[in-house]
Structures are given as structure tokens and as C-alpha cells.
Queue: 3 jobs
Job 1
Amino acid sequence: MSFGGALLRVEDLRVQFVTDDGVVHAVDGISYGVRQGKTLGIVGESGSGKTVASLTTMGLTRGRSTRVSGAIMFEGQDLLRASGEELRRIRGDQIAMIFQDPLSSLHPYYKVGWQLIEVMRAHRDISKAAAHDRAVELLELVGIPDPQRRVSQYPHEFSGGMRQRAMIAMALANEPKLLIADEPTTALDVTVQAQILALIKDLQQRLRMAVIIITHDLGVVAEIADEIAVMYAGRIVEHASTEEIFRAPQHPYTWGLLKSIPRLDIPRGEELIPIAGRPPSLINRPSGCHFHPRCPYAQPAHSRTDPRLEPVPDQPGHEVACLLAPAVRTRIWGDLQAGRAPAAARELAQTVPAGRGSERPPVVKEGGP
Amino acid sequence: MIASGEALVEVRGLAKHFPITSGIILQRKVGAVKAVDGVSFEVRRGETLGIVGETGCGKSTTARLMVRLLEPSAGTIHFDGEDITKRSGARLKELRREMQMIFQDPYSSLNPRKPVGSIIAEPFAIHGLLKSEGERKKRVQELMDRVGLHPEHYNRYPHEFSGGQRQRIGVARAIALEPKLLVADEPVSALDVSIQAQVLNLLRGLQRDLGLTLVFIAHDLSVVRHMCDRVAVMYLGKIAELARSDDLYTFPRHPYTGALLSAVPVPDPIGGRRERQLLSGDVPSPANPPQACRFHTRCPKAQELCSEEEPPLETKGTRSLAACHFPLSAEEVRLRLPLALTGADGGARAAGE
């Protein structure tokens, strides 16, 4: 996929943590970009590396036991090579982040208004009084009732939804060009989630922000994202426009996610098809395709060959890292959609010789250390 | 209302008020959190009843009251035809064999210092069953096999299992005494999406095979629809709507149910996106709930009557029970729900019955 004209461009990012138990391959060579005014959804389970990638963008994973390589280009500057001081200038100003848990992300000791004012005064030459007025405006913008009073309250006096709104207000204080939202609605009730998503969408349109939204909830990305990257075990296994991901998903893991969740838009009583096993350890990753131990369609060769992210034929902009032949994938997905179980679809996969999907030779390498 | 022979559990006017106290030594009662404030429903034999609602609506408290983990402030609970509201001591312990619970957090609900074998065998120890070591071990290993755990992991500790497996341990412990009633409080909300389906399928299979009656508590409306025959929607300690799943999800009568369904993100970028009906603000505090209809402060259909008179839970033209003066019309339902739910004429069909 080409990321020309992207506001943020992540290139072959790798993040490893050296621990007593071994090296954790948290992010393992991922690339993506996001343009101004657009939303990228990153979907994955816990331990898929989706959060680490974003924390690294913000320079929040730096440390002696962390090894980072690749590049994160933001407006022509490589954030991986930026100094601490340079990063501090960008962070909270050009790039802002909303975290999952609003209670532990707000300082319990300081009033909400104080925390908003601090964000502004750290980056702008603005008087306290002006910043205070702007803080009230911001709280009003994100839909907190009675902002005049709320601005001088502490986080514990806010409800969960209001704290998340306050976090968003804080992230937007300096009108960032890029907003990274890490599971922004996971801790919230469904009616509040709908409010927060609507708010992010509305603000994005008004401020022309680029947004990266990280979530495990396919419903949330369907709602808000323009394109979606599906992550598994530190890699992007599928990347396409939101429409394509839902219309013609290519990776067995994506199928698994789509078929294992109860949905309001499928007939009641349809059996759920769980993904067998559990997410792999990022220290001792499975050999070959990392998903092969859980993949119902895996063949012996898939435990030796490491697939790479390659374009899907005839679907511009759609990339997948899967060793099944494209024709086989199309037929399996068709079968799954028709309500057939993976076992039946698996037999089908075996009747067609396994192909590699493209003329580019796959990289053969051994599994983790 | 149905004949009581069909109902395994019958709850009438159940309430739980937690006192709010002030002062350290001389604690004065200054108010009460009305976590559950007069709910009535029955759980029929062999069915799955869902209780759904947002944080603080009282769904977990209701569950704990039902299995007598909490003392009700008012109301009665009948189990298998007998009043169990005031049971205590040995007679309460006897009751525990019949009703078991699965908890939300598979980490804190298992004793980290005990091997899985003795965690699952604990109910036998408590009730003095299967006294011989060999018999007990055999039964525990059968249970482990039944819930999809390796019986040879009998001597492992909880930390050696993943979240999904731990939840299976909790399930094995809960079905050990072959209870009549199983209450599952948010059993999958702490699990990864790919693991949730494993546990949901397990619960459905167990219910089918063991003829269990299941009360399933969750905040996720899609999960509840998948699991439950009937659903009670709670708001601020009261039941807003009680209906069969098929009816609730195609033709909700209470505006709150409509708002909940409208808010669920549907993983379908083409058919799912539609104009949402957003509720404003947050759920009010249960320490100081609104007068009359508790939903009137956020309700898009609220009129003067709603703040003056509390609506009873009763049928509103269809077989669903709703506590609302002005239930949703077919047209309003069509506007709120995802297309896939109402279908071409789903709403109208339910309305005609």
C-alpha cells in the first residue's frame, strides 16, 4: 500500500522488550499511514501489539530494555530519532492521545481545569485567565454540562463518560493534527460509547484531524474508520478499506473475529464459531505463519513458511498475509458466509493445491528464539 | 402471568437499599443507594433469562439477591415453590446446592493458592459429598473434561491457565453439584473477543445437556440476544422492559431499550450505519433517582405525566411488558434499530401480534 501524502507514516516498525524471560516481540515489522481528515482503525486482541505501536509513536516506550527499529515519519520528521525535548514539543500539541482508562489517566490530585490549563500552557504562550476561559470552552465543546462549575472539580467528581470527555477535551486543547485513541470507549456503557464516537467523528470533521483508533471491537471500527489494519502477534495480517474488510475479508483470523462475535445483524440462534486456542506468546512465537496453530485451514507447510503482507489480486488497496491461495480464500469465505462450519470449508481448502497468492517468493525463516 | 409450577424462581417486589453513612464512630444514615428498587419477574424452568443494563442499573445486585448472597431490603424470592427470602443456616446451605454462580472476573474468583482440582472439588467438601479421595478426583476430572479442560491439569494452579480456561474452571465448579439454577454474572466480558465464543458455546451446550435454568447477566446486547430466551432490561434499579428475545430485539417498546439498541455498533459498514438516537448525559445517581419514571430525564418521548406518575410494568399492545406511558410506535422503532434487526417488516409483524 502506498502511503504517499500521509500525515503519519509508520515504516517497518519493530519494538522489542528485553525481559528476564526473553525478548518480547511486541511489534514485528508493521507499516501503515494515515492522511489528514481520515481515520485508521487498528483491530486486535490483547497482546497483538496494537497499543505498543501507538505508544512508540508518542515516544512512550523509550527505555533501556526496549529495542526499536524502523521509522515513524510525521510531517517529514522521524519521531524515532527525535530527541526527548523535540518529542515533548510534538506530544500533546501536534499529536495527542486518548487512553482507555480515563480514571487512571487523569491526575486525581488536580482539578480537571488545572490539568487542561497545563496542557495549553506547556505548548502555547497563553495567560492563565485566557487558558481558563478556553478550558471552559473545551469542556462545553465535548458536551459536559455546566462547564463553568465542572472546570473546578476533581476527576473523582466526574462520571466515567464525563472523564472520557475530559480526556478528549485535553487531547484537543491544542488542536492536534493527529489524534490517537486507544480503546477510547471500552470502559464505557453502550449509550455513552455512542456519544463518544459521535463526538470524535464530529470533532474530526470540524478540525480536519487524522485519527487512529485502536480497538478490539469490530463494531466500533465499522462505525468510524475509513480503513482497517488487523493485527495478530505483533504483525498486520490484513489491511484494507473498512468496506472491503467486511465485504471480502481475506485472512482466516479476520474471518474468525467476524464469525465468533454475536451480532445484532445476523439471525438469532446462528452458532458462533470460536477461534480455537489462544493468542500466542510473543516471546516464543509459533514458527511459520504465527496464526497456524489456531487456523482451521493451516497445512503442514504453513508452519515453516512465514507469509508476508501482499496485495490481494484484483482488490486494489487490500493486503493480506496468508499462505492460502486467493481462490481458496474466496471460496472458504463464501462457505462461511453460507453458514457452513470451518470443518467443511477446511476440506475444501485441501482439495485445492495451496498457492502463495503472488509471484513474490515468501520469506522462509525459523520461528522465535 | 404464568402458573407458578412453570417458574423455578419467582421474585416479587425485590429491593436492596445500601445505606449511605456519615461519620466515623457514630455512623448516621444519611441516605440510601437504591440499587434495586422493587423488581418482579420469574425465571422459568429450562430457560435462559437475560438481565441487561448499563453500569449501576442493579443487574448484578439482583443476581446476588436471587442466590441469597445479599440480604434483600424488601420483597420475596420463591425458589422451586418455596419462600427462600428468610432462609438461614443449614437450610440456606442446603439451598446453595441448587443455585450456583459464575463470576465476571476469572482472576479474582479463584483461590490462587489452591490447585484446580481442589477448587473444583470444594463444593463436594463443603456439602460432605464424595468422601473418598478417588471418587472425588474421578468426578472432578469428569467435570474438567466436560468444560473442555485437560483432566491431567488437575494439579495445576490458576495462574497456569489463560483467562478463558479460568472461566471454564469457574464453570466446572458451578456445575459440580448439578444445580437447578446457574447465575452467570458477566461471564465473558473480561475475555478476549476470540475466546468469548468458546465460553458462550460451552454455557449453551451445558444448558442443553444438563437441563439447567440460566440467568445470564451482561451489558452487551448482542451477547444477550445470542444467549437468552427472555430478557429483562433494567434501568436505575427497576425493570424497564421484560420480553421474549425475538420481540425485544425486533420491536422494543420502552424508549430506553430503543436507545440501547440504537447505540450498539454493528460490524457492517454498509447496512449498519444509520442515524443514531443518542441519549444525552449520563445515568443519574441511584442515591437520588428521578421521581416517577426514572428514565424521564433522558427520554426523548418524555411528557409531563412521566415526571408525575410512575408507569407500571405491563403489556402495551404486544405480549412484551414495558414500564412506559408512551411506548415506541412501529415507525419510531424502524428509525432507531439497525436495518438488519427489523428487516423489511419485522417491526410491523411483532406489532400485529
Job 2
Amino acid sequence: MNFELLGQLIINGLIIGTLYGVVAMCFVLIYKASQIVNFAQGEFLLIGAWTCWWILTQFQIPFFWGFLLTLGFMLIFGVVLQVLVLRPMIGEPIISVIMVTIGLSIFFQALMKWLFGVFVQPFPPIFATESINVGGLNVQPIYLLSMAISLVVMVGFAWFFKFSRIGLAMRATAFDQQAAQSLGISIKLVFAVSWAISAMVSALAGVTVGVVNGVSSELSFFGIKVFPAVILGGLDSIIGAVVGGLVIGVLENVAEFVDGQWLHWGNLYTVAPFYVLIIILMVKPYGFFGTKDIERV
Amino acid sequence: MAKMHPCGDFRTSYRTDATLFPTRISLYFCIASIIAACFAPLFLDIYLLNLAIQIAYLGIAALGLNILVGFTGQISLGHSAFFGFGAFASAWINNTTGIPVFLCIPLAGLFTTAVGMIFGIPAARIKGLYLAIATLASQFILQDFFNRAEWFTGGASGASASPFSLFGFDFDTDERFYFVALAYFVIMYVLAANLLRTRDGRAFVAVRDHYLSAEIMGINLTKYRILSFGVSSFYAGVGGALFGHYLGFVSVEGFDILLSIQFLGMIIIGGLGSVMGSVLGAAFLVLLPEIMEYLVGLVGSTSWGNIPAITSGLAYFKEMAIGLAIVLFLIFEPDGLAHRWKQIKAYWKLYPFSY
């Protein structure tokens, strides 16, 4: 058994897992605030990454300013999308809501392919690329940075929902929409803010992955990988989303290791999370942290 | 004078409520349209026939999905995997056992039913969104299976499917295969329309409308949820088998999530919970890319024709049109084309005095 490789893979898994966690958090944020399942989450990453790439290569401005512009764009994008497309869907059955986000996801994916092509485009070099040694394992500094960013985002989320006024309003809305409305919380504002935050943080994750691997339409696959993570943690638990992301990230890499060492089936990296997902749903239908629905006639 | 359909609901017995043809005219209309469809190859060229065949096999699969989503209220994001499974199963049965193709197609449907019921097991416990994600997993697992099971699918090189033949007569050209597709289509359509008149079909609708009430009324939820998956997979399998024998070759690519979404798009655009709507939706999504191609051709002949982004972006325009159609229909016409059709009928029924 090759322990060094296993260790390396687990580290990779944790790093990619924190990114899954961040994206899953955005997904849960939208679900909690507006009861909308966003199948276009992966496209948010894609749009964010392409926008940032385009600004950087087109105008040759420093990364920091380009990134800020991207965040500004995503803010507007999230709000506009919510107002134009998702607001008319309030009160529609869950199938319609799921389908509308799926439709958006197809549309944006094709649009991005048309605008930017199907090939991987590398980001302009921003950070040093020589790998550093952590505890005997080689780690790229950009990975460490991405992990740090993810952690900062997670702490930011925690602070936002615990202490900020709008964050508290969002939690109240998630808990009981009518009661929140009667207390003077603007539901429209809460929905718009949740989509804007989700779009911005997804773009951050997209740019991070883009800087490491280059930007391509593969990024939108993150949006699908998020589902196992979210289901594992339960759809309406932000902590669950983070834990689920980490578990799925590690699981993928361990599955690849097991496959490479003994099974030789190939492709387990992509499929293993979905097997786990099916099993979890059979055993614990609401995930490990999700609230169980109790329905009355 | 033939019995007219009264304006309003004046049914007094369960028999009239469950009737397939409410008036004599609707029966004649139905028979006339089948006869007209039989003579279509005389008027349509190969290109249009090809589109008609596509509408037939995709329409069959969409009917199945509508039984699952529109009637039972369970969303499935893995329909194209079952469609693909049917295509491979039919080719495999035919190639290994030599059973004639026209028997292989329903057999493939039964195989797919079994697979669909296995993946439907999570549906016994979960619903709505969680179920959508579980079926998404089944899509990826089956797609991975297609890539891996070389004995079944031929792996990366694909499987060859022999053409449809009956008593030594090969249905190998588009004109001939059109009748095969039409026959299967009519049978499956009538079966689906009839399903809703039976106890099981009504149980499906009850499960959709309120599953707790349905259970209290004595409907076995687990049974009907899994059964619904089975029926829908049967339709997908038959549609897929027709697809396989039409092309003569089944490749592992193409049964991806995009096709699953297209199936969902068909029933959304056609109308959830409408048998005719599934077919209208299938026709819409088959014709939409052709219309896009025509439009791009039109633009290409004007002064914009030398912009490479427009002429080379056709594949992306087609995808964008599908996504946009789904979104726009959901916002502006959530009940789909079937609802529109009903409104047109109602308008003419009450013509001078419409309200």
C-alpha cells in the first residue's frame, strides 16, 4: 500500500472538499431563503470564472481589481436573475421550480461555450507556482490559498448569519416566511440578497478553481458534484453542507486510490459520490443534518 | 346530428367520466388522423419523415416520463439513461439470442422496467427534490455502466442493432420504418390514454395530488411510486429500442443528462399530466433545432453572414433555444401546449359568445 500517495490524495480531497463545501453552502443559502433548488449553481461558477478571465485578459488590470469587478457583476447578475426569472415562480410546484433552474443552466452553459469556446483557458499567472512542502507532502501554494479563502468565506457566513441585521432577517425568513413578513422584513429584499450572495461566493469559488486548473465548461460540473455533498448534510443545513463537501472531496480521492490500487474499474472518481448518495437516501432520507418534514393532512 | 360536447361538466355516471372519446366526433377525428398519418410517406420527403420518426420514438419516451412526472408527481432526471438502456437491451437481446426484433423491442421495455424499478426504490421513501437528486445519481451510475459493460454495450465502440424485420420483410428505409414507429407510437399512446381510466392510473393521480390522503384512502404508496417508475421506464425502453433499431447502431454517447433534460423539457412544454401534451412537446423540441438552423441560415444570407460567431455557433444556439424555451414556457405558459390547444378548442366551441 502506498501511504504517501494516499496522504497526498486525502490532502487534495480536503482542499477540493472545502471548495465543494463553499459551493454547497451557496446552494443551501438559496434553498433556505427562497425554497428554490438551484440547478444552475455550477453555471454561476462558470460565469464568474469566465467574467474574471475576460476582464483580466482584455483590460490587463491587476487581479485584485478584476476580481472586484467580477464580484460587482455577479451581484447584479444574481439580483437580475432572481427578479426576472425566479420571482414569477413563487408559489409554483416544485417540479416547475427545479425545471426553470435546469433550463437556465442549459442556457448559460451553451451561452458560455458560444462566447468563450470549449477549450481550457489558463488564467494569467498570479501567484508563485513552485510547490511547498507541508509535513512531507507537496502542496501548491495556490491550493493552500484557496483553502484559506474558503475558510474565510465560511467564517464570514457564520458571522453574517449570527450578527448582521440582514443575515438575521434571512434566517427569520427561512424559518417562517409569513411571520417574518409581518415583522416588517422585506421578503423581496431577502430573496434578492440571497441570490446575490450566492452568485458572488460561487464566482469566488469559480475563480479559485479557474486559477488552479484553467477555465473551461468543466467548471459547471461542480454544480452537480454539489448534490451528493448537500444531500449528505441535509438540504437545509449550512454546517451540513460544509461537512458534506469535505466528505465528498475526500471520498472521491479515496475512491480513486482504491480503484487505482486494487479494483481497476476506472472512472470511480466521478461515480463513487453518486453511489454514496443513493445509499444515504435509502438509509437516511433527509441527510445527516437536515430537518425531517412532518406533514399533517 | 352527432352528440355535441356540452359546455361545462354534465357527467352523471362514472362510465361517462372514464370514457376515452367524449363525443363521436372525437373518435372519428382520432381515426382520421391515424389514417392520414399512414399516408404521410406519400407527401413527406425523407427529411421530414426522419423528423416524424424522431417525434415518434422521443414521444413514446416522453409519454413515459409524463406518466411519472405529470401523473404521479415524481420528478426524474435520469430518463435518458433508461432510454439508452432500452436501446442497448434490445440490440443485445437480438444479437445474442436471435429473437426477432419486433419481440425484442417490448422485451427491452421489460428489461428497462426492471432496472427502472430498482432505481425507483428510493422513491418509496423520498419525494420532490431529494428524489430529483436520487434520479440524477441513477443517470450517472447508468451512464458509467454503459461505458463499463462491454459485454452489453460494446463499450466505446458501441453496439450494432439489426434493422426491424417482420416475416422476412426488412423495414430498413425511412419510409418503411416510419410505419413501424407509427404502429408502436399508436399502441403506446392508446395504452397511456387508457392507463388513466384504470384504477392504477387514478391511484397515480391521487398520489400526485396529495400523497397522504391517497394513503389514507387505501392506496399503497410504495407500490404505486415504484410501479410508476416501472411504467415510465417501460416507455423509455421501448422508445430507446426503436431509436436503436432505427439508427442501426447504438453508441454510449448521447444518453447524457442533456437528453434527460430535453425529455423533461418536452413534457413541460407540452403540458404536465397531459397525454397529448407529451407528444406536442416532443414535436416542439424536435422541430425547434430545425427552426434554429433555418433562422441561422436566413441570417447567414444577409450582410451578417460573414460574422463567424453567428455561422459557427449553431450547435450552441440550439442548446440555448432549448433552455430558453423551457424557462419561457414555465414563466408564461406553465400548463404547456396542451392547455393552449384546449383554449383554442374552447374558443371555437363558444365562438361568437366567448367569455
Job 3
Amino acid sequence: MNAMARLKYLGTETYEVFNRNKTSWAGLLLLSILLLIALLAPILAPYNPVEQNIIQRLQPPSSQFLLGTDYYGRDVLSRIIWGCRVSFVIGSISVGIAMFFGTIFGSLAGYKGGYLDHLIMGIMDVLMSIPILLMGLLIVAILGPSKVNLIIALALTMIPRFARIARAPTIAAKNKVYVEACQAMGFSDFRILVVHIFPNILGDLMVMGSIWMATAVRTEAALSFIGLGVNPPTATLGGMIREGFKDILSAPWASLFPGLVILLIVFSANLLGDGLRDALDPKLRNEN
Amino acid sequence: MEYVLEVKNLSTAFKLRSGWYPATCDISFSLKPNETLAIVGESGCGKSVTAFSLMGLLPKHGSRIDSGTALFKGEDLLTMPKDKLRKIRGSAMTMIFQEPMTSLNPVLTVGSQIAEAVYYHRGGGKAAAKKRALQLMDMVKIPAPESRYNDYPHHLSGGMCQRIMIAMSLACEPDLVFADEPTTALDVTIQAQMLYLLHELKQKQQMSMIFITHDLGVVAHVADRVAVMYAGNIVETAPVAELFANPRHPYTQALLKSIPRLDRDNRDIAPIQGMVPAIDKMPGGCRFYSRCRKQTQCRPDEFPQLKALKDSQDHLDRCLLNE
Amino acid sequence: MMNDSTDQPLLTVENLAKYFKIQRGFPKSVTHTVKAVDDVSFTINKQEAFGLAGESGCGKSTVGRCVLRLIEPDSGRVSLGDLDVLGLGKSDLRILRKKMQIIFQDPYSSLNPRRTVGQTLEEPMRVHKLYPKDDIPAVAVELLEKVGLSANAVDKYPHEFSGGQRQRIGIARALLFNPELIVADEAVSALDVSIQMQILQLLRNLKEKLSLSYLFISHDLAVVRYFCQRVAIMYLGKFVELGSVAQIFDDPLHPYTVTLRNASPIPDPSVSQEFAQLKGEVPSPISPPRGCHFHPRCSKVMDICHTVYPAWTELGEGRGVACHLYI
């Protein structure tokens, strides 16, 4: 009874928040469609994305190849669908890792304050001062290009941002009377952070998460474009732009369509994030 | 008798998620020149709402005035065109707010804020406005006004900020001043100074005051007349001595019996049981019925009107048993 | 004040002090020390409500929190029965939490808005394993009923309750551990006048039934008079006077107490009160006046008051005062 009531309350609360801003629906819808396409890649993609067929190379869009073929004769549409998958995987895993570690560091710094706060945030500042592409370059140069290393590089650039996001609401929550009440109840700091403070910062984290997802996808594309991303022949959106670039004037579809899809992913993730942020911000604060 | 303010049957409503609900009902009172009326009641009773609706400061969305008239020196505030109301507001009819530290603009000097009130309504040069501002600061007993003029609100204590607010409200020699819980946020010794200041100012200036508070101690020493509000209604109105000596409405009686006094031992104190009904769950009859000790003698479905008592024209109450 | 069982007080506080360091100034910052609590000593007996009264910034809330070690005091000694409160290690603080609890001022922010009332009450019991797991929900319901709320409150969220009801939940939470002493930090100040008395009577009943003592912190002297047996008046971190409520409010000795009492408006227009003679503002705690802190505002100031801080003088019958008039 208790759990059901609680779930229902959480569900309605989330829905109401979401519904306040219509752009979040658009963002969510678009993102969901793209996600679905990526998930259903094995079913949806009409052709094998890596199989080369030199005879058909650089064909313009036709009824046979809906978005044309690239330099190696591979179906652009199929490569895009599979590329989406890669983008989403890399994007969500790196954001997930960054959110996890970033939140721990940030809320620890905010809650404990003092020396630990300065130390942690100092390290975060250093990490954040390294430009994203440079970080990607460094990691890939040291560890070699691969999906995993790409994820590590992206996560490292995002951890400090999440730490910052987690720190401020933690400090605000720490000063709330009910946190003092928890201390009076003899709860450990760990318990207070995880059970009482964390749910209050979750909203802000979600917003950032969706916005940073877009950045992760963009960065992956950029790194792939300069050749430091995922290795060929795996289809990635950035890699496709790279490969199609030399023929951009004669066969623009090979670069254009992957670029458009990146645009779509980034746009919808930003819409979602913006919508969430607007809805979560002041209006929800007067729930008390 | 020329009344400064005559309010008749003022009713307002608020919008909740589930619809519009009456907030204040049938508010009626009159204010003579130089008179201080205290509107006393607990949170949610509608005392601040009444003041805001008279000043035209109710939030645009989610609240509305349903009926009533409010004649300020003969003109109805509620039907007045907005720009005319705005001219009156801040000059002939002003307000002192509850939280002095946050009611002042933090990025402007306190002196300039007073001068702005003068300049906006009275015109004249900036120099004349400053001179008047200094004069006002002196009137509210701010020590060394010339040096304080350029201070910012955060340099001043709560009591000082409240004096600045009072100075602003007196800038244009108003006929009516609303004071919305002006001393609630102040320490008791500062509150005492503030009450004395208001008392002095009232004697020097010709102004009427509507003093809104929940503190019956303050009422006893500030008011000439008192209106007691409960759940959106005025339930009793009387001259101050009469109200405390001879309360007639069961709510007033119960309220006076439930507050501890510093000057005696408080043996026969008794709380009022129960709670004020929520705005969306108001009963159709008397709103105090569920908590009234004379419940058994009364009828729940009939809504009582505010009527003068038989033996005193000055003393009105809203109780079926007193009719 | 009759103590039936033993004469040993429940709580003994000796020379409690808490200083805060503030850095002001740019570019070279100067460190000021604010003596929020300065050499405070008192005792609370069993089943007694001891009042701590004063205006904002006098340090009364800090005293309450130091006694509970929610703030760590800088010096002094606090004993609860035989327990040396300040000597407990961090890991042993749980022992303390079971004996002393707190009720907060703001009913709106003292409860986690995202937890149901049931969760808020059950959590401490689960964490500290106070009862067998299956009994805990029933204990929560019992507590709610003890404070005048119905059992169906357990599934509701704080925003569904009024201020007075939330304060009752806060009281239920404080009672979870069967404490011996409860610090009530302005526990009724944020409540409506008619609700205040409901809560005060509830607290009083609980005092009798559960043999509780209270450290009752408040700025409202009339409430202190009603609820407490003895009271201490604080000014800028120090006690200025201590005694029974009748003594302090009917016959105050310290000029500040007189000022405070005379400034509190009495709800009776037939009692004439002179508000005129009160002067000045509460001085900044960063640099309190030399000598007696109150001397700039004192109507009975003497030469010695400017230079020497008056020592605490015991006047017998449990009364004490810090004023040169009585040394």
C-alpha cells in the first residue's frame, strides 16, 4: 500500500513537471524515435553496413539505396542506422559514468566542505580546463583508438561538470532543517547524502544528463571525424562525415545525411534538457 | 461624519487547482480620520488579502474581487481606473510591509528610495526631494540622517530599515497608511520603539492607519478600534477597550483565553481545539461552528451577518446567538 | 521547585562557550571572533521545563545546539546524569541521540518533503534497530496517536498537513527514542496563536506522562512564563539573569530584563505600558561594548559598568544576576 502510493505520487509528480513545458514532449518524442531506430538496427537496416561493393560506390539516393552509397559502396542509410547505435551507446554510457562519479565527487565536496571541498573542486577545475577535443586526443593518443577509450575520454571531460551540478544543491540541502534533523537522529553522513540529499539533486542531474548526452554525441562525431574515434569499418556518424568529405561536392549525400542525423540527435536532446530544466526550475520549488 | 475609508461587502476569491473559492466574504468597516483600526486574525484569515485588495495589489492571476465597494474619501477604489489608483497608491494611501530588510531595494541607497517616493508623486527637483527625504528620516528618528542617506539597506538593522519604510510611506502626507505586520519580524525591544514611533507620528500627522497583525498585545497598544477576522470573515468589531474587556464573539473570547500573559500566572488558559477549515472546504453556515464551545446551542447551516449589539452601536459581531 | 526522587539535576552545563570566526575585509582580511555563547552555566532538573529567553542573536539557539552537540562547543562541560556529553567520541554520539532530542522552529522545512510521514518516523527506528522490523510501523502509528494525529497520516506527505500538524509530527519524531531531555528551539514561534497553546499543552502533557525535561528556547516571554518553571535571560552570548519565572517576570533585577519585560506588549489595553524609554539597537556581536555589554542602553548605568564586566552573583533561592547593581 505504502509503496504503491509512493510510486503513484512520484509518477504523477514527474508527469506534471514534464507536462508544463511542451518542448520537452517534442524533444522526448524525437529522441525516442531515434533511439528506437538505433535499437532496431538489425531489423531496420536494409543492407549490411560494412560490406563493401565497389561497383555501387557513390551512387546518389535512389529507390534501391534510399540515401545513396558512400565511397566504398556501402548503403548510407544502413550505416546511419548502425551509426546511431554507436552514438547512443557511447553517449549514454559516458554520460552515465560521468554522472555517477561526478555526483559522488560533487556532493561529497559540497557536504563536507572545507579542505575536501577545495581539493576535489580543484581537481575538477583542472580537468575542466582541458578542452574536450584535446582530452579526447590525449586519451586516444595514449590508450589508442577504441570504443572504450572514447567513452573514458568523454566521461573524463564530463565528470567535473556533473560534480559542479551536484555540489550546489547539496550545499543548499545541507543547510535545510530536515538535514539537521537527520543529524539529530544520529544518521551517518552517508545515509544523509544518499537517502535524503540525493533525491533532491536528481532533477538537476537529469537535466544536465540529457544536455550532455548531446555534447557526447557531438564530441564523438568530432573525434571520429579527425580520425581518433572508433576504428573503421565500424559505422559512426562522425566517421561517415570524414570519409565522405573528400567527395563532398560530387557526392554530398555521404556526408550530409550523417551530419543531419547528428543535428537531429543533438537538437532533440537539447529540447528535452531545456524543457526539463524550465519545468523543474522555479515552479517545482514551491512544492513546500 | 466624513469617513476616510468606507468598505462595504467586499468579497474576494482565489483560484486553486480545483477552481475558484471565496477567500474573504462580506468585509465591511469604516475608518474615521486619525483613527487606527487593527485587523487582527491568524494566518489565512484574509487580513492581508483585504489590505491588498483595497490597495489594488492582489495578484493579477489567481485572485479576483467578487463584489463590494471601498470608498476612499468618497471615491470607490475598486472601480477606479488603474492609473488613478496608482497615483493614489504611494501618496495618499501607502503601505508598510512586514519584512523591512527585503522590502527595500538592495542596490539603491535608502535615502534615494525615500527621495524617489517624493519625486515620483510630488515632482519638484531632485534637491527638493532629497531635502524632504532628510526631513522624513529625522521624523522617524534616524540618527544622523545626512550620513545615513547614502547607506544601503544591508548596512542597516531591521529596525532602521523599518523606519526607512515608514519614512517612505509618509513621504506624501498620506491620508491612509496600511501597516501589514510591520513589527512581526522585529525583536521585541525594537518593536516597542517602533510602536512608540507610530504613536508619536499619528499625533503629529493627520493620518488614519489600518494595522494588520496577529499579535493581540500589539493591538491593545496601537489600535483605537479592532476588527477580528476568522476564515475570511470579520467576526467582531469594537473599540479596543471594549473588545478586550467585553468580547462577544465566541472566537474572540476563545482567542483571548488561549494566549499566555506575561503579567500573570496563566492558570485558566485553554487552547481552541481543532483547526481553521481549508479554503476549499468552508462550511456554508458559521465558519467557527466546528470549534465553538456554544456549538450545541447553535445552528450549523445558517450564515450569520455582522450586526451591532443591542446595547452598543459601536460593537458589532457575527454570531447567531448574539442576535 | 520540588524534586521528588533525587536532588541531582538531569543536565548540568558548566562554562559552555562557542566562538565563531568571521573574516572581513578586502584585500587584507581581518579575523573577528564572535562569542556566540560565552561562559554559560545552568542546570535542568528532572521533569522541568527550563526557559532560555532573549532577542535574536543572543545565542540561545546556539546553546541548545551545543548541548546536543549538533554544533561542537569550544569549551565547557555538559553532563547528562553521569554521561559526559562533550567527551563522547564521534562514533558514540548515537548514545547521546537516544537521550536528548530536538524540536525545530520551522515546521515547514524540518521534514523532508519527499518522504512520507511514515518513512520519516520509521527510518530512525530502522537505522538504530530500536524494535523488531515488523513492529516498527505499529510503533510509528502509536507515536502519531500520542501526539494527536490519526493513523492514516503515515502515508501522507508533509505538504498535506498544516503547520501545527507538522509540528506534531516533529514532536513524534523527537519522542522516538524515549529521550530524557528535549530541546525545543522556538518550537511554537512559527505557529498561529490558537495552535500554539494546543502544542504547548501537548508538550506539557508529555512532560508529565513521559517524565521529560525541556530546554525551552523562545523569544516570547509570555509563552516562557506559561510553559517553564525557571528561565535564564540571555544578551550577546551571556546570561544576565536566572530564576523562577515568577521571580524574573514579576520582579526582574537586571535592567535588560526590565527592558525586555516592559517592551513585551500585554494583550490588555487597560494595562498602561511605557514604550518610550527604550533606546538604541542591539550592538553587533562582533565587537560588543566594553565592560558590561548592556551599559550603552542601560538606564541605571554607573562608572564601573563601562570598564568591568559584572561577575555572576548568586542571590539565593536559585536566583542569579550579572549586574554591578547587585554585586
